[in-house]
Specification:
7-stranded parallel sheet; two-stranded parallel sheet; Rossmann fold; 9 helices; 253 residues
């Protein structure tokens, strides 16, 4: 049996850097065919190149996951190229502006929920429709520990990630008997370009994170990617509707 017939077709939104790039490389090392989606062309093309070098087949498709027509085109182009869609990692997201609830602007609220929650829903709509045709498929959504516990100063972010978890659970129940599994990963504080950007603005951030973390460190993008890989594998065939915390014990406190 050829590698092409045994490898999976994987779609990753927000694949231009951080956790999305790490996931693309993890799937590629397994020999899968990876579609990297995102808004930034140079970074997306770089992820696809690295994925090919890692052993997979990969392409980049520029996509704004908040625009329905672009999401529909993304899934259609994926299926046109490889005839199916086995796994999807809906990873695109932002932290938005940090502010207490009464100080959160309407602009920040709508932008954060649009990218973090509505885009996940739009992606799932198109992914599920294709997976129903196949009677199989796995979806993993990137939520956050902020969707499991409160986060001071991040009302929009917390609301969006809590919404992702509930959307995940709902879809898991709806399609459990139709061969589709839907789960979420909930990363804690992870070393990514997004976290680095916040740390540059607030030098006290990383020392604070290390103090509150039971493990005393930040997680890595590769650690989250490995969890996504497992949830998409046959080893997790009886797992659906689950929100998996990858947080060094943060929410266990």
């Amino acid at each position: 049996m050829s590698k092409a017939t045994t490898s999976k077709v994987v779609l990753i939104t927000g694949g231009t850097s951080g956790i999305g790039r790490a996931a693309a490389l993890a799937f590629a090392r397994r020999g899968d065919r990876v579609v990297v989606a995102g808004r930034r062309v140079s970074e997306g093309e770089e992820t696809a190149r690295l994925a090919r070098e890692a052993g997979g087949d990969a392409v980049f498709i520029q996509t704004d996951a908040t625009i329905p027509s672009e999401v529909e085109a993304l899934v259609a182009r994926t299926v046109e190229r490889w005839e199916r869609l086995d796994c999807a990692f809906n990873n695109a997201g932002i932290t938005g502006e940090m502010a207490r609830t009464a100080d959160c602007t309407e602009e920040n609220w709508h932008r954060t929920l649009s990218i973090n929650l509505t885009a996940v829903w739009l992606s799932m709509k198109c992914e599920i429709r294709q997976m129903l045709k196949q009677s199989s498929g796995v979806i993993v959504n990137n939520a956050s520990t902020a969707g499991l516990v409160g986060m001071r100063g991040g009302p929009a972010y917390s609301a969006s990630k809590g919404g992702v978890i509930q959307l995940t659970r709902t879809a898991a129940l709806e399609y459990a008997k139709q061969g589709i599994r839907v789960n979420a990963v909930c990363p804690g504080f992870i070393e990514t370009p997004m976290t680095d950007a916040h740390a540059r603005v607030n030098p006290d951030l990383e020392p604070w994170i290390r103090r509150i973390q039971p493990m005393g460190r930040l997680g890595t993008a590769d650690e989250v990617a490995e969890a996504v890989l497992w949830l998409c594998s046959d080893a997790a065939s009886f797992v659906t509707g689950h929100a998996l915390a990858i947080d060094g014990g943060l929410v266990a406190q």
